[in-house]
Design brief:
single chain, binds S-adenosylmethionine, six-stranded mixed sheet, three-stranded mixed sheet, alpha/beta
């Protein structure tokens, strides 16, 4: 398949380097990462190359895995195995013991129930003291960080009423309920954040 025919998102091209810059500060000797909602596979491909000692296991809902694997298989990277089917709404994610978990631009696409299930599932796949990286836009105390995020939220909800930019406070509460403590909230370009959590002992 020609490179131009692989799954592609301009947003991923724009955000992958800023994301790398943040991840570099937290990833050193860890050897395993689970990505949820891998999408086009661009983050997996780019970041697996940058962290050659990190086994980057990407995943997405079953209906999206074939599409995602077009890029993953074309990348031919030793540390980037084929994506696994994983819907966060499944009671048993069927995998465990990752040191890191990453997801980008997914919580505002999923329903609120799916976001809850995302957090509920994390302790079953993540080692104690493991880190969770969540990239995307958030609201704070009900307020958008920018007018463009408010417009983006309108667009999301018009497309699917179950989608929507999540409140940081709600995310932090859901995280705390499963033993995830906020390490840092990093402001990113284009009105996004990276929330980093650590799973308590
Ligand atoms: C906007 S895309 C983001 C994809 C990619 N991470 C990125 O940054 O471009 C949202 C992703 O969420 C995934 N998704 C939606 N519902 C999901 C669920 N219940 N479980 C896992 N992934 C889900 C979609 O399949 C899609 O890949």
């Amino acid at each position: 398949m020609l490179k131009e025919q692989l799954p592609y998102s301009q947003a991923c091209e724009n955000n992958k380097k800023p994301i790398l810059k943040v991840l570099r500060q937290y990833i050193s000797n860890q050897s395993s990462l689970l990505e949820i909602a891998g999408g086009t596979g661009q983050h997996g491909e780019f970041l697996a190359k940058k962290f050659p000692n990190l086994h980057w296991q990407t995943s997405d809902v079953p209906a999206a895995v074939g599409h995602l694997n077009l890029r993953i298989s074309a990348a031919k990277l030793k540390n980037l195995p084929l994506a696994l089917p994983l819907d966060v709404n499944n009671a048993n994610w069927g995998m465990n013991n990752y040191e890191l978990l990453f997801t980008a631009n997914s919580l505002h696409i999923m329903s609120v129930k799916s976001v809850e299930n995302f957090f509920t599932g994390i302790p079953s796949v993540l080692k104690k003291q493991g880190l969770v990286f969540i990239y995307g836009p958030f609201k704070y105390e009900g307020n958008y960080t920018t007018e463009s995020n408010a417009q983006f939220d309108d667009w999301l909800r018009a497309r699917n009423p179950e989608s929507g930019i999540r409140d940081f406070e709600d995310i932090n509460t859901l995280a705390a309920e499963v033993g995830l403590n906020l390490v840092v909230d990093v402001g990113m370009p284009a009105n996004n954040q990276i929330l980093i959590f650590s799973l308590a002992e």
